């Protein structure tokens, strides 16, 4: 079973590679380290760093050394994080250690969630029904954004040949996502957030009109619902069966329903392009949530064009995790990789038994692997929680 820990370059640099190996392999019982190779901004509490207790990473940078030749004449360009130049290429270090008998290596790769690039390329970001840009989300319908992501994964896999690349956010993102000083005085419902996340940019317009989708009709419906939501004194649910029924909740609105059915195409085709351009030595899998359709993910379609998926079991009870894995296995089939992601956060996990029970449920549901989140964000003592979960899996 693949047992991995998501981590950042600066955490390995702060702790040291030897300590990482001792803590993840020997203490926690893991066999894979998943390194963030493309990442966004944040503010992270660092409980175990010997030199600091908080960290602000650069926004929208990559944590490897791009091959200049691959990026010639590309409109959207990667920016190597200063961390790599100042403290070393940790991906290269991990790959060298793997080749000498160390842990296997995955590349946790953020795709379209990139505010730095969105601000530089406003014509390539998602736009809501009112035309407002979402600079944190490059649009999967944008040819330049697609080329950027596919080239980035090709760059990583051709140079480093990791065992796996885990794709985060190759899809449409929600309207509310924790942006700096994000404010909502209305009290948007989950359905409002979803409707605000629908993209009506020029790239989506061109693509939908090419296949006969009435995007203007869909946009009109969405604008109406959102305008009404902004006028109410108190939020009201308009679709009682959202999100359980998926896009069927909007079947009474034919233009919107057809638009939502189309919306999975740019995501699926982007993942296909990534897989086609990546080195064959690296598996390509999607990181997704339970209701991935909200971001335009058709798991069955994506599963046919890549090597599998990691479904995050965040804030889920034991029975729900088992059901999530069973459903994922049914959709992907027996030959694709199926993983689950767990946050080792308190109080989401109240102790070692909580984590162990969820790990057992995931395996019983058909999981091939588990990713634990996150090496630098949790106290060292919680590595023993991970060890207990791993021990129970091996019993």
Word description of this protein:
- With 395 residues, the chain is an alpha/beta fold.
- The protein has 15 helices and 13 strands.
- It has helices at residues 9-15, 17-27, 82-87, 90-99, 115-120, 143-160, 190-197, 202-210, 215-231, 254-262, 264-277, 299-305, 318-332, 352-364, 383-394; strands at 2-7, 32-39, 44-45, 54-55, 61-62, 104-110, 125-127, 133-138, 164-168, 283-288, 308-312, 337-343, 369-373.
- Strands 1-2-6-9-10-11-12-13 form an 8-stranded parallel beta barrel, surrounded by 7 helices.
- α6 (143-160) packs parallel to α11 (264-277).
- The radius of gyration is 21 Å and the shape is globular.
- The two termini are 13 Å apart.
- 45% of the residues are buried.
The best one-word shape is: globular
The span between the termini is 13 Å
Low-pLDDT residue spans = none
> Which secondary-structure class do the elements indicate?
alpha/beta
Number of helices: 15
Residues in helix, %: 40-55%
Total beta-strand segments:
13
As a whole number of angstroms, the C-alpha radius of gyration is: 21 Å
The string of secondary-structure elements, in order, is EHHEEEEHHEHEEHEHHHHHEHEHEHEH
Beta-strand portion reads 15-25%
Largest sheet features? 8 strands, parallel, barrel
User: What is the mean pLDDT?
Assistant: 97
Question: What is the topology, as strand order, of the major beta sheet?
Answer: 1-2-6-9-10-11-12-13
């Amino acid at each position: 079973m693949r047992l991995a820990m998501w981590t950042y370059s600066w955490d390995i640099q702060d702790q040291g590679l030897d300590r990482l190996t001792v803590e993840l392999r020997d203490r926690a019982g893991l066999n894979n380290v998943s390194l963030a190779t493309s990442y966004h901004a944040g503010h992270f509490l660092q409980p175990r760093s010997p030199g600091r207790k908080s960290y602000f990473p650069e926004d929208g940078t990559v944590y490897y050394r791009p091959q200049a030749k691959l990026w010639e004449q590309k409109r959207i360009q990667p920016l190597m994080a200063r961390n790599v130049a100042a403290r070393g290429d940790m991906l290269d270090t991990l790959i060298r250690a793997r080749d000498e008998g160390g842990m296997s290596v995955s590349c946790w790769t953020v795709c379209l969630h990139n505010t730095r690039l969105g601000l530089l390329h406003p014509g390539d970001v998602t736009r809501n029904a009112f035309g407002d840009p979402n600079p944190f989300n490059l649009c999967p319908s944008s040819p330049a954004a697609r080329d950027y992501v596919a080239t980035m994964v090709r760059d990583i896999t051709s140079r480093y040949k990791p065992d796996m690349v885990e794709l985060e956010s190759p899809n449409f993102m929600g309207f509310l996502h924790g942006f700096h000083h994000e404010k909502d005085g209305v009290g948007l419902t989950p359905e409002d957030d979803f409707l605000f996340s629908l993209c009506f940019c020029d790239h989506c317009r061109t693509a939908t009109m090419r296949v006969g989708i009435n995007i203007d009709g869909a946009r009109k419906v969405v604008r109406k619902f959102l305008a009404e939501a902004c006028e109410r004194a108190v939020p009201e649910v308009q679709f009682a069966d959202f999100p359980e029924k998926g896009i069927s909740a909007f079947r009474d609105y034919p233009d919107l329903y057809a638009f939502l059915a189309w919306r999975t195409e740019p995501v699926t085709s982007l993942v296909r392009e990534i897989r086609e351009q990546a080195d064959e030595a690296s598996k390509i899998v999607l990181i997704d949530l339970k209701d991935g359709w909200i971001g335009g993910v058709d798991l069955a379609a994506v599963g046919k064009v890549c090597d599998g998926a990691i479904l995050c079991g965040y804030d889920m009870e034991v029975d729900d995790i088992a059901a999530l894995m069973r459903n994922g296995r049914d959709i992907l089939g027996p030959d694709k990789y199926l993983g689950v992601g767990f946050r080792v956060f308190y109080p989401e996990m109240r102790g070692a038994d909580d984590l162990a029970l969820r790990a057992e449920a995931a395996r019983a549901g058909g999981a091939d692997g588990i990713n634990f989140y996150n090496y630098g964000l949790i106290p060292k003592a919680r590595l023993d929680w991970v060890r207990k979960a791993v021990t129970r899996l091996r019993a």
